[in-house]
Automatic annotation (TrEMBL):
<feature type="binding site">
    <location>
        <position position="297"/>
    </location>
    <ligand>
        <name>substrate</name>
    </ligand>
</feature>
<dbReference type="GO" id="GO:0005829">
    <property type="term" value="C:cytosol"/>
</dbReference>
<feature type="binding site">
    <location>
        <position position="417"/>
    </location>
    <ligand>
        <name>substrate</name>
    </ligand>
</feature>
<dbReference type="InterPro" id="IPR017853">
    <property type="entry name" value="GH"/>
</dbReference>
<feature type="active site" description="Nucleophile">
    <location>
        <position position="371"/>
    </location>
</feature>
<feature type="binding site">
    <location>
        <position position="17"/>
    </location>
    <ligand>
        <name>substrate</name>
    </ligand>
</feature>
<dbReference type="InterPro" id="IPR033132">
    <property type="entry name" value="GH_1_N_CS"/>
</dbReference>
<dbReference type="GO" id="GO:0008422">
    <property type="term" value="F:beta-glucosidase activity"/>
</dbReference>
<keyword id="KW-0326">Glycosidase</keyword>
<dbReference type="Pfam" id="PF00232">
    <property type="entry name" value="Glyco_hydro_1"/>
</dbReference>
<keyword id="KW-0119">Carbohydrate metabolism</keyword>
<dbReference type="InterPro" id="IPR001360">
    <property type="entry name" value="Glyco_hydro_1"/>
</dbReference>
<keyword id="KW-0136">Cellulose degradation</keyword>
<keyword id="KW-0624">Polysaccharide degradation</keyword>
<dbReference type="GO" id="GO:0030245">
    <property type="term" value="P:cellulose catabolic process"/>
</dbReference>
<feature type="active site" description="Proton donor">
    <location>
        <position position="163"/>
    </location>
</feature>
<dbReference type="InterPro" id="IPR018120">
    <property type="entry name" value="Glyco_hydro_1_AS"/>
</dbReference>
Amino acid sequence: MKFPKDFFFGAASASYQVEGAWNEDGKGVTNWDVFSKIPGKTFEGTNGDVAIDHYHRYKEDIKLMAEMGLDSYRFSISWARIIPDGRGEVNEKGIEFYNNLIDECLKYGIVPFATLYHWDMPQILEEEGGWLNKNTIDAFVKYAKVCFEAFGDRIKHWITFNETIVFCGHGYLEGSHPPGIKNDPKKYFMATHNVVTAHARSVETYKKLRQFGEIGITHVFSPAFPVDNKEENVFAAYHANQYEIAWYYDPVLKGTYPEYVVKQLKEQGIVPDWTDEELAVIKSAAPKNDFIGLNYYQPRRVIKNNDVGESSKQTRDGAPGSASFDGVYRTVTMPDKNYTKWGWEIAPDAFLEGVRLLKSDYGDIKLYVTENGLGDADPIIEGEDVDVARIKFIETHLKAIKKAISEGINLKGYYAWSAIDLLSWLNGYKKQYGFIYVDQKDNLKRKKKLSFYWYKKIIEERGENI
Ligand code: BGP
């Protein structure tokens, strides 16, 4: 079987992780420009000031993507390039940059898939309370409208937010992303609700413009599975999925928050401060949401947390081994599973199981895998990046996607993370994901990896031999 004709074989990136040019052409300072420079916050103090200089080298990069045969490129727009102070004047130079980037994609027939918010927020807004301040919702909707009006003639696929659970969880529970607040569930839930509201209002705004494209949101897809059939562990997995899947997917797809979570938040006095008007727009926008983007890296294997009193104990970024913020469950590693060098489980089968569950909960909603990939310190042999492990990783995940499609799951595209080696938020440049190698020691020179040639062939054959 070949993948369907309208299935996108793509690859992704995010503005802060690739662009650099942090203070050029009128761009405003972002929360990440500031946060990454606080000593100890990022691996070896890396930051996105230069990143991989995609801002100046986008033509070269897109040419390589075209050579690889990408159907589509997912990138994000930096809010602070478009509206430097978050809510005021539009920066024409910022519009010009993304116009050029989009036109360069279209020149090669690459479909641009844009994310409006991949975590870099104008610093001024962050200082005014960021996602805790309801004015940020108005500012975001204005920014979204500016983008729809400027680029909507050519961009027909929009993602509002990337991984709300990550930037809110790291921002207000773990303190490892801006604004660096630790263990504050009240703020965490408040921020998530404001983001959901901003998403809903942006969907309404987009549909009113009648540009006849599609709009959705990208969520982390990390379904929880109990380690065994013990009732307490089955319950732990249920609880995890209510808080980390339903809390994010329900308002976008069903228009309401999950009762199970709302009830518990009420009991703890940490229910977000929401208005009837906000709840109404969340409800009215839900049927207009066109798709969900899934960022799938790994599932979670969970058990009941017996370490009473311990919560949010952090392990390495993203690796299993920590207790949930409420101390109810914990994620664990299992001896019979495979893990990456950074301790993330490799489990294409869990993806398949997860999307089957998603279908049973949410019906036939259109899905894209908007991120999936292997973070590795690639082997370099005689100057060549021979990333065999990445090929294997992507191949097995594409196989799972193919199976899902054959079962009638509405999956319309796959975006490998990432198109090109880039800056990892907390792991610097040593954790690589790309098809294209970027030589940090030689003027950021681009070089094709083994996976580049492999993915090119997969796309040419439309995945027939997977
Ligand atoms: C996702 C983010 C990406 C990217 C990826 C890999 O959560 O959306 O921006 O960073 O994870 O993460 P890491 O670089 O930490 O391995």
